[in-house]
Amino acid sequence: MAKPYDLDERISEYIKKSSPSKLVPQYQVGSKVKVRITRLVDFGAFVVTMDPFALSGLIHNRHIPKEQELHVGQVIEAKVKEVKEDNKIEFRLDENLTVHEAFADLEVLKEKLPDHSSKVKPPDETKEIIHFLSKEFGIISDESKKKVEEMVNEVGVFRFTLSMMKILPVFKRDLVYHFLKEVEQVRDSL
C-alpha cells in the first residue's frame, strides 16, 4: 500500500506533466496559500498546495515557529517566500516573520494611516492626569498644570503616567516639608 505522501507526490508530478505550462499559477511572494503537509524531514516540511495545481514546496525549519507542531496531512496557511524556476515553492509560516519583514509590513500599514504628529497628545488624557493629581494633592497651580502638559508632550502619556505611578507611593505629601525645602534653596542662594 502506498503511503499518503507518495501518492500526493505522484499526483503532483502527473498534474505537472499533463498540464500546459501556461496554466501554472503565478504565486506572488508574500501571498497566502493553503497547503497540506506531505512529509516531515529533519530540515523542514514538504507541502503541496491545496489548489488544482497541487504544486509542491518546502517550509524550512527556520521558517517554522518552534512552538508549532506539524503533522503529515495537516492543512495550514503559509506565505510564499520564493518561487523557484521549476515552480517549486519555498514557504514560511506567518508567525515567524523576521524583524525586517515585520517592520516592512508595518511601514505599509503606516503609509495608509492619516498623518498625525507623534507629539500631539489628546487633551483629554492630559486633563485626566491633572484631575487625578488634584484629587491626590488638592489645588494645582496654573504653573503646575502647564508643567504637566509640557512633560506629557515631551515623553508621552504612557511614560509620564508610569513615572508618576512609581513615585506616588514614596512621595512625601507634606506641604510644609516642601515649603521648607524651597526655603533652604532660597537661603543657600543668598
UniProtKB/TrEMBL annotation:
One of its GO terms (molecular function) is nucleic acid binding. Residues 30-94 form the S1 motif domain. InterPro entries: NA-bd_OB-fold (IPR012340), S1_domain (IPR003029). Signal peptide: none annotated. SUPFAM superfamilies: Nucleic acid-binding proteins. Pfam families: S1. This is S1 RNA-binding domain-containing protein. It comes from Thermoactinomyces daqus.
